[in-house]
Amino acid sequence: MWYHRLSHLHSRLQDLLKGGVIYPALPQPNFKSLLPLAVHWHHTASKSLTCAWQQHEDHFELKYANTVMRFDYVWLRDHCRSASCYNSKTHQRSLDTASVDLCIKPKTIRLDETTLFFTWPDGHVTKYDLNWLVKNSYEGQKQKVIQPRILWNAEIYQQAQVPSVDCQSFLETNEGLKKFLQNFLLYGIAFVENVPPTQEHTEKLAERISLIRETIYGRMWYFTSDFSRGDTAYTKLALDRHTDTTYFQEPCGFLAFSY
Questions:
Q1: What does DSSP say about strands 42-46 and 49-55: parallel, antiparallel, or unpaired?
Q2: Do the beta carbons of residue 180 and residue 192 sit within 8 Å?
Q3: Contact yes or no for 246/252 (Cβ under 8 A)
Q4: pLDDT over 70 at 115, yes or no
Q5: Which of 191, 195, 130 is nearest to 164 (CA)?
Q6: Rounded Cα distance, 251 and 253, in Å
Q7: pLDDT at 172 over 60
């Protein structure tokens, strides 16, 4: 921080003066008065973790649990969990969000062990548990376990030797369904073997995974090579990379094919 750099230079100047170099008397500058209070870090030790915060003009910055988090003051006020602002039984806000001043800033902030207390301009006090802030912060969310993905080509997929799932196991056991979903989430593709190649059986498998949404084509449909439809998707021509149903309000999450 600039304050530390200036303090260091001032200390060096004092050392030079003590060493016999004569200068006109210089008034000692008050560097703290040159810096607004908002940029001072406040350090407080809490049980096992160190907490430090910094008040900015438009947001609150918190260092805790090896995470640097930033919260808009409006967000903090809107997420007050006091009895007058939040119904803990229904988990619904009682506070009218539109009534919160977009330029709101806390008057005071203090820490009591692992709880931060914000006092707002109207005197209302909001308390935030530090672990709750970590859990609900954007930065904290990024540290959560994210579903891994494998970007594959033919060689990678063959080397992985991803096992397919038998139709009966898929339909009748949770283990079979789990194995299919694990493969699907990891690679974006998964296979079920020994499925009769009919629309009815394909629909039954699809319903095992999720609800089937209605579309302009219906819930399920059958197609084959038919150029009369005026669409190359209905011909024997190869289809290049593309996505389906992007023009839908709710594009499909996965496609199921039987062959």
A1: antiparallel
A2: yes
A3: no
A4: yes
A5: 191
A6: 7
A7: yes
For residue 42, the model assigns a pLDDT of 55
Which amino acid is residue 52, in one-letter code? A
Q: Which residue has the tokens 């439809």?
A: 229
In three state form, how does the secondary structure of the chain look? Answer: CHHHHHHHHHHHHHHHHHCCCCCCCCCCCCHHHHCCHHHCCEEEEECCEEEEEEECCCEEEEEECCEEEEEEHHHHHHCCCCCCCEECCCCEECCCHHHCCCCCCCCEEEEECCEEEEECCCCCEEEEEHHHHHHHCHHHHHCCCCCCCCCCCHHHHHHHCCCCEEHHHHHHCHHHHHHHHHHHHHHCCCCEECCCCCHHHHHHHHHHHCCCCCCCCCCCCCCCCCHHHCCHHHCCCCCCCCCCCCCCCCCCCCCCCCC
User: What is the C-alpha to C-alpha distance for residues 65 and 229, in angstroms, rounded to an integer?
Assistant: 60
pLDDT value, residue 43: 53
pLDDT tens digit sequence for 41-96: 555 544 456 889 999 999 999 999 888 999 999 999 999 999 999 999 999 999 99
Whether the pLDDT of residue 99 is over 90: the answer is: yes
Instruction: Round to whole Å and give the CA distance between 221 and 207.
Output: 15
